[in-house]
């Protein structure tokens, strides 16, 4: 191969995007700015002097004819795609990636900042660099390597690590710089990390001409090895790219495309390769805030929006510690070995640190770019379950008290033991691990790798179970290795699939009838029957907790509604970019429309939340408080809808008392955004009469005419299914917590609309094949999707399936 016959991409955020040839180097922008005078620290406000960058470019051009300089990870990915697509011959593409040597220290500092979006935290102004913050350095290396492994990039794309910022490792002021580089490049631990991440070689900055000659030799060898099969690769890559937005956006497309499956398979098949970077010392929270969190955890007024990430983690820690304080659960402590010699205070600190590490690892498994299904939602579900278990008497009173519980356990509550309570809490922590921010229907319609892996059935829930199991295997092995606990945990997480909601409602109806028939006496039940009903009860409790956002205090419930709307809007934008029919019921939501938002919440309460909570209250009377909150919130939403309709008649401005103007303009939930106004009690009305409950213009409000709170949930499930359209599939969104109404004009005169009016049937949307198929013809789209529920569920569902994918 002729010297210089290869592509070279040099990635350094200190430089500008530029294409430089050897003969034009002296006139290039990098040459003209080589005399800049800026700060020395790489991560300081100033930048490293560009003279070093100029030296690196000179070294590259001493061997190769041209170089593409990229100042960001985004431009690097775009350039790789451009070069690979535009290259006719088999020539390598070297990607020299700037990796700051102190990046790990910087990321550790940043890890203490809030990660999970919330609308009530103050916003820190950051400079928008037009790219994801983590798509640089080692993260960019990992991303490029993943693209190569999944055959989105050719194997001729060769990532090379170039370490910068090495001055921090200088042994002394008098030591020569060459000694510094020697120490760094002989650090086998660090070098192995880069090589394991996909780097072919590791260089130090400034680059030397000798090392560039070595790259030229390597390029020739690669060219000879890659001559075979290149044509088939290009065909596969181009077909695959037809169904995906370009690689310039790393999240969430790349995550959906390969990371979810590839990372999961790596964790299962090669657990020893998963790095351990969790340190309990990274968790910091002063005693005052700990007391505040503990007090709030004890009440149903708990609002996850009011706390930082570390405060949310401490809330989870407090709940787990309280559960583990039961003598029956002492064997489930994380630590193994003899700790009898430790003092009581030292032992408590040690055990707390172990739990903190587990919780930090779990928190890290949730995606920051997902607005609703993140760690904040997880702690909300965890606290709801914890509160339920304390109320029904399965867990001791919280805060701890010496008084015996005044309420007697119901027969069904007596089936649950502390073991089941702990399993429920552990299940809640991992029930949405790795959620991508889209629903099951989206993954199935797109034929995503994850949908293929799980055969289109409970796709996300199955993934959550598998991914969370790897966290437990590493950080809580006692739970992972216990067959009974693992089985119950999987049952609990799969229960959160809303596609199986009416199957659970049917089973709940059967349990209600059995309890009524036996007059509340369970002693005559066989061991198998008791075990089945206990598992069903656990599944029902986590289902209630998963959709408890509509049963929270109204101010908290309204925040959750807006955040979920934002997440659905993001999915709608992805569907538009991918040119695929919407997989959201009723299409993408409408922002800043109180009528649409209120109708969606009322519809969800009537179809899902209220029947579920009322039927559960029938077997667990201590849950009545949640039903009361749902009725109160429903009345408030109805009042706000009526007020908005009157305002539109008179064209009088209305303060929604949900969001401030700034939040309405920027609906993205973030730990840095301002909090909403508190609701005005003067605008609230008492709960509406029962006979008026079904008259609102919300999609699918089919239970308004069903009277009484102690009805059979089997009848409710049947009534609900009779009002649902045929679905493409039975397994819906893992945590559908709102009904999204269609874009029909609002009725200003308050005339009731039919529950099915204006609803576009999205169930016949074509299924895209992301690899080789173009959109199917209409006759293909008309075929019904396979049922995703297990055999018993199919019998109960019949031909009517849930449309809430």
Short description:
The chain is mainly alpha-helical and 805 residues long.
Can you tell me about this structure?
This protein is mainly alpha-helical and 805 residues long. Among the domains are: 241 residues, Rossmann fold, CATH 3.40.50.2300; 262 residues, no CATH class. Helix content is 47%, strand content 4%. A six-stranded mixed beta sheet has the order 2-3-1-4-5-6, sandwiched between helices. The C terminus is likely disordered. Belongs to the cyclic nucleotide phosphodiesterase family. Its EC number is 3.1.4.-. Its cofactor is a divalent metal cation.
Layout of secondary structure:
Blueprint: E1 7-11, E2 18-21, H1 29-32, H2 51-61, E3 66-70, H3 73-86, E4 93-100, H4 103-110, H5 138-149, E5 157-164, H6 177-185, H7 188-196, E6 201-204, H8 209-225, H9 230-241, H10 250-269, H11 287-297, H12 309-324, H13 344-364, H14 375-391, H15 418-430, H16 440-445, H17 449-453, H18 459-475, H19 477-481, H20 483-494, H21 501-517, H22 527-546, H23 554-577, H24 594-619, H25 624-650, H26 661-665, H27 713-722, H28 778-781, H29 791-797
Helix pairs in contact: 10-18, 11-12, 12-13, 12-14, 12-15, 13-18, 14-15, 14-22, 15-20, 18-20, 20-22, 21-22, 21-24, 21-27, 21-29, 24-25, 24-27
């Amino acid at each position: 191969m002729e010297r210089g016959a290869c592509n070279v991409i040099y990635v350094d955020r200190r430089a500008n995007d530029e294409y430089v040839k050897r003969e034009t180097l002296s006139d290039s922008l990098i040459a003209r700015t080589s005399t800049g005078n800026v700060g020395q620290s790489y991560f300081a406000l100033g930048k490293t002097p560009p003279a070093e960058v100029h030296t690196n470019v000179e070294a590259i051009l001493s061997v190769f004819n041209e170089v593409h300089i990229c100042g960001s990870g985004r431009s690097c990915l775009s350039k790789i795609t451009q070069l690979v697509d535009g290259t006719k011959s088999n020539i390598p593409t070297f990607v020299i990636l700037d990796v700051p040597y102190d990046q790990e220290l910087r990321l550790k500092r940043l890890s203490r900042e809030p990660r999970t979006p919330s609308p009530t935290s103050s916003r820190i102004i950051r400079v928008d660099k037009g790219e994801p913050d983590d798509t640089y350095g080692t993260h960019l290396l990992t991303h490029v390597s993943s693209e190569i492994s999944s055959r989105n990039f050719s194997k001729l794309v060769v990532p090379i690590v170039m370490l910068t910022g090495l001055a921090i490792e200088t042994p002394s002021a008098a030591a020569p710089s060459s000694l510094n580089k020697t120490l760094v490049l002989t650090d086998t631990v660090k070098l192995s990390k880069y090589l394991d991440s996909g780097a072919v070689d590791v260089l130090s900055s400034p680059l030397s001409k000798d090392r560039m000659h070595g790259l030229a030799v390597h390029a020739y060898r690669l060219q000879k090895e890659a001559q075979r099969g290149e044509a088939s690769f290009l065909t596969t890559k181009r077909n695959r790219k037809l169904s995906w937005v370009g690689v310039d956006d790393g999240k969430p497309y790349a995550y959906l495309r390969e990371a979810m499956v590839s990372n999961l398979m790596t964790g299962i098949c090669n657990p020893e390769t998963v790095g351990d970077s969790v340190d309990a010392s990274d968790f910091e929270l002063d005693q005052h805030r700990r007391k505040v969190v503990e007090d709030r955890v004890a009440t149903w007024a708990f609002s996850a929006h009011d706390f930082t990430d570390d405060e949310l983690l401490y809330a989870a820690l407090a709940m787990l510690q309280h559960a583990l304080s039961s003598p029956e659960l002492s064997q489930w402590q994380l630590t193994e070995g003899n700790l009898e010699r430790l003092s009581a205070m030292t032992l408590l600190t040690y055990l707390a640190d172990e739990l903190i590490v587990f919780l930090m690892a779990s928190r890290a498994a949730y995606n920051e770019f997902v607005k609703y299904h993140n760690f904040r939602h997880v702690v909300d579900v965890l606290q709801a379950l914890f509160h339920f278990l304390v109320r029904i008497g399965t867990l001791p009173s919280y805060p701890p008290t010496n008084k015996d519980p005044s309420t007697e356990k119901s027969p069904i509550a007596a089936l649950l033991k502390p073991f089941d309570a702990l399993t429920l809490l552990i299940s809640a922590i991992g029930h949405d691990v790795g959620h991508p921010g889209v629903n099951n229907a989206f993954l199935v319609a797109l034929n995503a790798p994850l949908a293929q892996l799980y055969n289109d059935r409970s796709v996300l829930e199955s993934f959550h179970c598998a991914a969370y199991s790897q966290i437990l295997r590493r950080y809580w092995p006692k739970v992972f290795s216990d067959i009974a606990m693992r089985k119950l945990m999987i049952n609990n997480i799969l229960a959160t699939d809303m596609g199986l909601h009416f199957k659970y409602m049917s089973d709940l109806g059967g349990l209600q009838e059995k309890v009524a028939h036996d007059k509340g006496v369970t002693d005559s039940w066989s061991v198998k029957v008791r075990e089945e009903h206990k598992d069903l009860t656990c599944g029902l409790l986590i289902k209630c907790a998963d959709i408890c956002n509509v049963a929270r205090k109204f101010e908290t419930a309204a925040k959750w509604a807006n955040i979920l709307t934002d997440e659905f809007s993001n999915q709608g934008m992805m569907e538009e970019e991918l040119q695929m029919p919407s997989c959201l019921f009723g299409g993408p939501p409408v922002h800043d429309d109180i009528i649409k938002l209120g109708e969606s919440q009322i519809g969800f309460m009537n179809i899902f939340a209220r029947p579920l909570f009322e039927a559960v209250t029938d077997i667990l009377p201590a849950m009545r408080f949640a039903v009361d909150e749902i009725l109160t919130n429903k009345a408030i939403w109805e009042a706000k809808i009526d007020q908005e309709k009157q305002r539109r008649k008179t064209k009088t401005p209305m303060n929604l008392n949900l969001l401030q103007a700034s939040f309405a303009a920027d609906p993205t939930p973030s730990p840095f955004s301002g909090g909403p106004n508190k609701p005005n009690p003067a605008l609230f009305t008492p709960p509406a009469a029962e006979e008026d409950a079904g008259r609102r213009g919300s999609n699918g409000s089919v239970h308004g005419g069903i009277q009484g709170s102690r009805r059979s949930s089997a009848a409710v499930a049947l009534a609900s299914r009779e009002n649902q359209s045929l679905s493409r599939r039975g397994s819906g969104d893992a945590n559908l917590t709102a009904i999204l109404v269609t874009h029909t004009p609002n009725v200003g005169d308050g005339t009731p609309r039919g529950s099915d009016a204006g609803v576009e049937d999205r169930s016949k949307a074509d299924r895209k094949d992301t690899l080789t198929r173009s959109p199917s013809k209409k006759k293909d789209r008309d075929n019904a999707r396979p049922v995703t529920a297990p055999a018993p569920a199919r019998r109960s569902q019949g031909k009517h399936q849930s449309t809430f994918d």
